[in-house]
Each structure stands twice: as structure tokens, then as C-alpha cells.
Design goal:
This is Formylmethanofuran dehydrogenase subunit E region. This protein is α+β, with helices and mostly antiparallel strands and about 550 residues long. Helix content is about 30%, strand content about 25%.
Length: about 550
């Protein structure tokens, strides 16, 4: 049986020249592609999706205009030997696959395709004869409609040069190319520069045995560790080594040290440069990073200790981290920054984060790469919590009629007062939308700028609280969050002549669980930090509470 305009032997030679040998999969693939082409309307401009990366893509490229290079063929590897050709505008087309039931009449094909025979045991002439005899009769064909995401081509994004390797790449991949992010499938063979050589490349800096270091100046802090007792710099950058220091250094396990002839001066870390190298000392780099990372409410002390700068809170508040830009910063080699988790409540003088260069020296080029990431502003800030005037609205006919004793008001009151807020009004109303709307107006008249409403947020027919809030003017609504407990929570704002009133709807689970979504989101609302659906989506990671018998939150991982 011919394969399109080719005889079997002609296509076999074509396959051999293109593929390296006449692979059975390529020969079968030729029949599959031609069968699909015959079932497309004449003149159709089509594209291809191949479900296997073996042989079949080559058949598509030999018999059609589709290729990986022009983007008209996509390999969506599902492990199935099938090809789909479809109208590139509408997605309508056909799918051709090999039918194991039909190939039962051809034992050599069946043995090859189902891997019943090892390759060395296959009778290749007989296998090729069966493939020619069977043709497309071992295939099945079915009409399909390709999903929209497989139709058309993604437009190229802006192209930039990677600051690490210097090669061009799509800017959407991040601050450095994906190869330099660690995805490269190879290692470039480059001569590894030893630490000693690198130090010696900087003017006046060298690595020497401690016995030869007397009278020389240290170029970095040296840490002493007594397990469970002490960890800190025993020797500091700029300190001159004396005879009496040799024994202490050896006791610390230091038998070689990096020194310079520069004048002594504790904490000094001058910039070292030579004819070709332009290196930045770890202390200088850490200080430069710190000045750009610290935003409002964040403090740090200089000079760096042990090569790093640590940040502390200059005030009580909510620690805010630009997580994406911090990730981008850490993609740059030889530097690092680590912090507490974003949206953590912190106290004044509490530790927040730390940054440093990893080697003793980094190049000016590497420093520039890091600073490029920091151009967008600080990474860290501590946002003060406003002292909100809170209105608490409890909804539910059973509570209004006294059938069930209210427990919400004391629970909510305790949580908001702990954060420095005051409760200006409380109210209990039945499951009546009009009464709820009037109650909301009463909260505003009492001066509330944060309304916390409880109950009535589920799918029960009597749960009308959310609808009542909409009647009262609620806008920018976010309802439902990927956090357990607290999924049915509601957020938004009600505009007014005196400003917006924030609204937080708390589901009934807050009565049973000590910690819920309420505890995660309340500080964010009080810090006036905007909350988006994207931020809520990220909270799903770590948003499942284990409901421990003894709750230790916030010292557990819930919400982090």
C-alpha cells in the first residue's frame, strides 16, 4: 500500500535518509498521517498535535508542512501513538491512532508494537512486509475539536540579555535566563578558580598559614562556635593578628587565613581592585543590599557581622515582603537574602531578615545584577496597624430570638482588642435582609470603619447575610477563600461620605475553632494592605489547619 504519493519503498528510503534508519514507527506513522490528511476538507490549513515523541513527529514533518520549528506541530506527550490534524483557525479535525485490536491479525506488528519481542529477536523484513500489507487498516480515526489553548501561537515577549551568561532570552522567564536558574541540561566546562587564587587576584589580599599571618590584617570576620553556648565573630575584619592569636585560631580549626597589608581598623572592609578584577568585599556588598532592601519600619545595624546584615522591626506591625522580587534576587548567583514569612505580625526590635554575599568577594558585575532586581524599591517593610473602630453585627434568627446564646460578640471583641482596636457598637439581627441593611447603617452612624459580621455566609436557604451586605452597598467583594477553617469568609468595602467601611464576614466555624481565616486576614486589613484574589489563592499552600487539641498558633505552620 502506498503512503500518499510515495510507494512503500520510496517512503522507506526517505525515512532512512531523514531519520537515520527506517524505523517501524516512522513507517506506520506515514500511513497514519496520510489517513488523517485524507479526512480533512481540501484546502484546509492545518496544524498537528502528536501524542508521542518517538518517530511519529518525523512522519508529520516528512509528509506535511508542520514542524516544531515553524510552530505548526506540537508534541503533547501522552505516551500514546496518535496524531491529530486540525484546522488551525477552528480547531476542528481528526485524530488517528493505532488500534491494538486490529493489529492482532499481524503478529510481527503486534510483537513489535506491544514490546512482546526484544529488538534483536524481531524479523525486520517480515515486520516491514506486514506494515506495507496492513497500511492504515490497523488505525482508527475519530473526529475531534482541539482545545483553544492548542490553537494559534503565543507571541514572543520582550527579549533581554541574561546578566549572568550574557545570552538573549525572553524577559518573562525572570531576571536571569532559565539556564542560569539551573534548568540547563549540561555543565559548561570552565576552569574552576580556587578560593586562594581569587583572593590573590585582588590587590594585597592573600591566603597564608596562620603562623605567617602575624602582623597582617584580617579581611573578614571569623566565627567561633561553642555548641549551645556561643556563636559569633571571635576575630573581625580589619583586626591585626598577634602572636597570641595563633593558638586561638588553631583551636577554632583555622590553619589558613585571608589577610591584607592594609592598615588595621576593626570592621574595615575596603574595596579591593586589581588591573582586570574589580571585586567587592562581602561586608560592602551586604551593606549595599541592606540600604536598598529596608523600607519603612525596618532597621538594620552596621557594620555587618560575619559578612551579613540582619534586619529588625523599627515598630510593631505587619511584616510585608515582596516575595516575588526576593525570589528574583535569590536567583542571582553568589548572593542571598532570607526572611520571616510575609504577613507576619512582629514586635519592635524583633528579627526580620538577613542578607549577605556568599563568597568573600563578588564581582562588580554580580553586584550590578543584584541591584538591578532591587531597583523596584525595598523588599521589606513593617506596616503599622490602625486602631480600627469596629462594629460587630451578629446575624441569625435563632440568636435574635434567644434560642441560642450569642458567643460571637465576646470572641470577636477579644480578637480585635488584642490588636489595639475598639468596639464602638454591637447588634444582633434576624435573617432579614432589610433589618440587616438598617443595622449596617447604624454601625456607620456609630463611627465604625470596620464592620465584622458573623454567620449567614453558607449555602443554606436562610443564609442571607451576604445578599444583605450587597444591598447595603458592598463592593470589591471577595467571597470564599482556600483556607480551612474559614472558607466561607467574605471581604469587601461599603463606600460612604466619610470614607469606606471595611467589611469582613466571618463564618460560624470561628465559634468552634480557636484559629481560622479571621486570624490570618484581620492584621492585613488593619494594615491597609490591599488583598487580592491572587494573594488569597496563594494562601491555599499552608491553609489547612490540623485542629490540634492544644492550639499553638502562630507558632505552627497554619497560614504560612
Amino acid at each position: 500500500m502506498n503512503i500518499g504519493s510515495y510507494t512503500f519503498d520510496e517512503f522507506r528510503r526517505l525515512a532512512e535518509n531523514f531519520h537515520g534508519y527506517a524505523a517501524p514507527g516512522l513507517l506506520v506513522g506515514g500511513y497514519m498521517v496520510e489517513l488523517a490528511k485524507r479526512h480533512l476538507p481540501e484546502g484546509t490549513l492545518f496544524e498537528a498535535v502528536v501524542e508521542s515523541g518517538k518517530c511519529l513527529p518525523d512522519a508529520v514533518q516528512l509528509l506535511t508542512l508542520c514542524s516544531i520549528g515553524n510552530g505548526w506541530m506540537k508534541i503533547h506527550n501522552l505516551g500514546r501513538y496518535a496524531v491529530s490534524l486540525f484546522d488551525k483557525h477552528t480547531g476542528e479535525g481528526v485524530r488517528v491512532s493505532v488500534d491494538p485490536v486490529k493489529m492482532a491479525a499481524y503478529p510481527e506488528i503486534e510483537g513489535w508494537f506491544l514490546k512482546k519481542k526484544a529488538k534483536k529477536d524481531q524479523d525486520v523484513p517480515r515486520l516491514e512486509a506486514e506494515i506495507e500489507q496492513a497500511g492504515d487498516t490497523i488505525c482508527k480515526i475519530e473526529p475531534i475539536m482541539v482545545k483553544r489553548r492548542f490553537i494559534g501561537h503565543k507571541h514572543m515577549s520582550r527579549i533581554v540579555c541574561c546578566p549572568v551568561c550574557g545570552e538573549a532570552y525572553p524577559a518573562e522567564d525572570g531576571p536571569v535566563c532559565r539556564g542560569c536558574q539551573g534548568e540547563a541540561p549540561y555543565v559548561v566546562a570552565r576552569r574552576e578558580i580556587k578560593a586562594a587564587e581569587r583572593h590573590e587576584a585582588a590587590t594585597g589580599v592573600r591566603v597564608v598559614p596562620v603562623q605567617e599571618a602575624v602582623g597582617q590584617t584580617l579581611v573578614h570576620d571569623m566565627t567561633r562556635i561553642d555548641p549551645g553556648q556561643f556563636k559569633g565573630p571571635e576575630f573581625k575584619a580589619g583586626q591585626r593578628i598577634s602572636v597570641g592569636d595563633i593558638c586561638r585560631l588553631q583551636q577554632m580549626g583555622r590553619f589558613h587565613v585571608a589577610v591584607t597589608d592594609a592598615p588595621a581598623g576593626e570592621g574595615a572592609a575596603p574595596s579591593f581592585a586589581s588591573g582586570e578584577d574589580n571585586l567587592v568585599h562581602e561586608n560592602e556588598a551586604a551593606e549595599i543590599f541592606a540600604r536598598r532592601m529596608a523600607g519603612e519600619g525596618v532597621a538594620y545595624s552596621l557594620p555587618p557581622r560575619e559578612g551579613k546584615v540582619e534586619f529588625t522591626a523599627a515598630r510593631d506591625g505587619l511584616f510585608s515582603v515582596d516575595v516575588e522580587r526576593m525570589r528574583q534576587f535569590n536567583l542571582v548567583p553568589e548572593i542571598m537574602v532570607a526572611s520571616r514569612q510575609d504577613a507576619t505580625l512582629v514586635k519592635q526590635n524583633g528579627p526580620l531578615a538577613g542578607t549577605r554575599a556568599i563568597p568573600l568577594f563578588i564581582s562588580r558585575e554580580r553586584l550590578s545584577q543584584a541591584l538591578e532586581v532591587l531597583e523596584g524599591g525595598p523588599l521589606f517593610s513593617v506596616l503599622p496597624l490602625r486602631k480600627a473602630r469596629v462594629g460587630i453585627l451578629v446575624t441569625g434568627t435563632e440568636v435574635f430570638q434567644g434560642i441560642i446564646e450569642d458567643k460571637f460578640i465576646p470572641v470577636i471583641t477579644a480578637k480585635v482588642t488584642m490588636l489595639g482596636c475598639s468596639v464602638v457598637k454591637t447588634d444582633i439581627v434576624p435573617d432579614d435582609r432589610e433589618m440587616m441593611v438598617r443595622a449596617v447603617a447604624g454601625m456607620r452612624e456609630a463611627g465604625a470603619d470596620l464592620l465584622i459580621t458573623t454567620g449567614g455566609l453558607s449555602v443554606d436557604p436562610d443564609d442571607v447575610t451576604r445578599h444583605a451586605m450587597m444591598d447595603a452597598g458592598l463592593t470589591d467583594v471577595l467571597h470564599g477563600v482556600p483556607v480551612l477553617p474559614g472558607t466561607m469568609s467574605l471581604m469587601g468595602r461599603i463606600p460612604g461620605p466619610d470614607g469606606d467601611m471595611q467589611v469582613l464576614g466571618v463564618p460560624a466555624c470561628a465559634l468552634y475553632f480557636k484559629t481560622t481565616f479571621l486570624d490570618l486576614v484581620l492584621p492585613r486589613l488593619l494594615s491597609n494592605r490591599g488583598i487580592t484574589r491572587a494573594e488569597l489563592a496563594r494562601m491555599g499552600d499552608g491553609g489547612y489547619c490540623l485542629s490540634c487539641h492544644t492550639c499553638t498558633w502562630p507558632k505552627c505552620w497554619f497560614g504560612k
